[in-house]
Amino acid sequence: MRFSLLVFGLAAALSLSASAAEKVTLKLGDVKGDRFISLRESGQLKDLPYDLKLTSFDSGAPVQEALNAGALDIGFTGDLPFLFVFAAGAPVKAVGAWQNNPDSIALLTRPDSGIHSLKDLKGKQIAVNRGGWGHYLLLGLLERAGLKLSDVTLRFLGPVDGRAALASHAVDAWATWEPYVSSAEEVDKDVRVPEGGGKGILSGYSYALAREEALKDPAKREAIADLMTRLARAQVWAAQHPQAFANALSTSLGFPPAIAARWIASAQIRPLNFTPQVADTLQKSADFFFNYHVLPKRIDVHQAFDYDLSAGANQVASEQGIK
Fold first, then answer.
1. 228: how many CB neighbours lie within 10 A of its CB?
2. Helix/strand/coil for 51
3. Is residue 288 within 8 Å of 143, Cβ to Cβ?
4. What confidence tens digit (pLDDT) does each residue in 57-69 have?
5. Phi, psi (rounded to 5 degrees) for 173
6. What local confidence, expressed as pLDDT, does residue 269 receive?
7. pTM
8. Is it the case that residue 1 has pLDDT exceeding 60?
9. What is the DSSP code string of 65-95?
10. What does the H/E/C string look like for 156-199?
């Protein structure tokens, strides 16, 4: 009898070990970790049937680089950096999307810069992140003002260096996004250039991008689909609990509470129905960047989308009345 129990116990232990060995790990990259924090605070990371390993980045470009290098299975990033790695042949596809308020991407200046309208940008030096939201915004704002690219001097800087350049008077304006907008307004007392927001220029879309290698693995593919559904639920929770979310961001990322609260109120993040209409919007951005010779070649982005993993996330968006 004792021998039988021993054999049974050994078999059970081996079964548990095999089950544990089969549990996949998703390597996730996020910008500033805010999506991950919404997942955690909303309870969506409880009882995960897979392991989730997070790496946080300051902007979307290094997320793309890590994906391309195989260091990540999935990454969260803005839409525009995706264009460049896709054009370069990176083995990644978009598997989900959500939207930030386009006006949370804005052109900032100092109160003493002499910039009181978009037309005042003529002859100024402006910091932008090459190939990202800031770059796209500035090009659109120049068109809005009836100015040419040759009317300004662009300084290609990342968000940390862009902020420092504006503060030190090395540039006259800086195109950036949240949470950098709220931080610069709150701490540096920078101001938004009138009519200098992204509405009417940028979609404000962000994407979940997955390596094709991960998408070919049935277990990882299933895990990514589950993560997309959980993320959509987490984003709904964050919108419904802005103070709790802001407090969590403040604690986790070291932002003062006032900046975190401004960030959440400004960004207004919401899930999207992930359909071919999302790809149509990105195609317009690709054509715009190509026309300005920012993108090295004309590309068709529609083949870079995998819609089959977004059914659960789309259902969450539909329940919120998002079409």
1. 26
2. strand
3. no
4. 877 778 888 998 8
5. -155, 165
6. 93
7. 0.86
8. no
9. HHHHTTS-SEEEEEHHHHHHHHHTT-SEEEE
10. ECCHHHHHHHHHCCCCCEEEECCCHHHHHHHHHCCEEEEEEECC
